[in-house]
Every structure is written in C-alpha cells, then in structure tokens.
Design a protein that fits this description.
This protein has 270 residues and is α+β, with helices and mostly antiparallel strands. The protein is built from nine helices and ten strands. α1 runs antiparallel to α2 and α5 packs across α6.
Length: 270
C-alpha cells in the first residue's frame, strides 16, 4: 500500500479545503485518512492512500486556487506544492517511484503544471533552493503555470511533521532554537504563527528520533534562549511505533495518541 501526503496551498477557506478533499476524511472520501489545515501557513496537508485520490485532489486544487493570490508563512512553489509517495507495509521503494513518475507525467500533461522530482535525485530542500535558477523542471513546461505554479513530486520514507510553539513572539529566539536543534534526521524552520514563534520540524529519521526527542530538544534550547515552550502540534499522522517510543504519560503533552496513527486510520477503513 502507498501513502501520499499532499500539501496544498490553502488553509483558510474550510469550504475550499473540503471541496479539494472530495468529502470528509474516512467517510465520504475513505481514501483521505486525515486533513490538517493551518491559517497562518495557509496550507492543508491531506494524508491519502492509493494513487487515484491524489490526482482528484490535484485536479480540484488547480481548478480553484491561484498561487499568485496566495499569502502564508510557509514557502511554496505552487498550489499543489508537495506530493510525496510513501511505501507502507506490503509495498516498496520501487512501487513508490513508479507512482511518483506516473503522477508527475500525468500532472505535467493533463494539468500542464511543471514538476520537479525529488527522492533519489535530490532532496526537497534542494528543490526549494534551486528551482527556477539552476534547476529546471523534470516534466512539463519550462515556466510556472500562471495560476498553479509548480509541483514538487517525490518519494520519501515515513516522516513526522511536528510543530512546537514558543511562549514568545520573538522570531530571533525561534530562529536560534531551530538552528540549534537541526541535525541529520531532523529538519527545522522558524515561523510566526498566530502571534507565537513556532519551530516547525520534519522528523525524517523516525526510527531513532521520537516526537519526545524533538520536543525536548526545542524545550532545552528555548530555556537557554530565555523563553519556554507553549504547546506542541502534530501535523497529520504518525506511525504506531512512534507511540511505543514515548512514555504514555507524555502523549497529551506531545499532542499524540492512538487515534492519530497511520495504522489506526487504515484499520478504521477495514
């Protein structure tokens, strides 16, 4: 089975977010396991399974959104900004690569949107840093779509998107903390969200870095910078093994729990 975690540049209009999803997660559209939206990022993360649902999401997003009118703190190249395919149990990297390449060809021909690939070729941060300068699209037009921009379509292992909010609006503190906790397997950025400084993280090495580790690193560096942690936020879902890496007494503090696992949402479909 393949998971696809589609990042769409709309997080404020709940009607549009639902329209793009094609229904409510797990009910009217069972292929959508979860939707996480953020107004300040102006971004929604759709956790899906299979390979057809992602095309429907992309088509609807390109139909109704305009990246030239978009405003939000999160960086983006297009209205369908990131499309990563993830191999779950029963599938492998080759399956994810085939799905990625099929989707990239479809998006560039059916939607006329340029596509940058990531995975074995390069990382997503590499694409963000070099797109339209030293890096040209791998598929599609050699200029951005007038309203849809471009897509980053890739293959990656399971990762965890995780945010920690600080009890300060001082972005210098957030940038310092983000830089100090960044390391192999843990990517970080700093944002101002709803008046609070936020350290936004992608836990790439989910085998050895837990959400508790990420939280504690931020909390430690935040104290050294003269502030405290306000709260944590899981974006999307996490693998069951992450719960097993963390003491149950901390789940509420870390904003995680059994209902937020990939496995639980898949089991609910059967």
């Amino acid at each position: 089975m393949l998971e696809c975690v589609v990042n769409v540049s709309e997080g404020r209009d709940t009607g549009l977010v639902r329209f793009i999803a094609g229904g409510e997660p797990g009910t009217t559209n069972p292929a959508v396991l979860d939707i996480h939206s953020d107004a300040d990022h102006n971004r929604s993360v759709y956790t899906t399974v299979g390979t057809s649902c992602v095309r429907d999401i992309a088509r609807r997003a390109v139909e109704v959104l305009d990246v030239s009118q978009h405003a939000g703190v999160h960086p983006r190249l297009g209205v369908v900004d990131v499309v990563p395919f993830v191999a779950l149990d029963g599938s492998g990297t080759d399956d994810a690569l085939r799905a990625r390449d099929d989707f990239a060809h479809w998006a560039s021909t059916a939607l006329h949107v340029p596509v940058f690939l990531y995975g074995p070729e390069r990382t997503l941060p590499d694409v963000r840093r070099t797109a339209w300068t030293s890096l040209s699209p791998d598929h599609g037009p050699d200029a951005p779509h007038p309203t849809a921009g471009a897509m980053c379509v890739g293959v990656r292992p399971v990762l965890i998107a995780y945010n920690v909010f600080l009890a300060t609006s001082d972005m210098n503190v957030a940038r310092i903390v983000a830089a100090r906790v960044r390391r192999p397997g843990l990517r970080t950025l700093a944002f101002l969200v709803a008046g609070s400084a936020q350290v936004s993280m992608n836990i790439v090495d989910t085998q050895t870095i837990s959400v508790a580790d990420a939280y504690d690193l931020v909390a430690s560096e935040t104290r050294l910078a003269g502030s405290t942690v306000q709260r944590a936020e899981l974006v999307g879902l996490l693998p069951q093994r992450q719960l097993e890496m963390v003491d149950e007494t901390r789940w509420e503090q870390l904003d995680i729990g059994p209902s937020q696992t990939i496995e639980a949402r898949l089991n609910a479909l059967s």
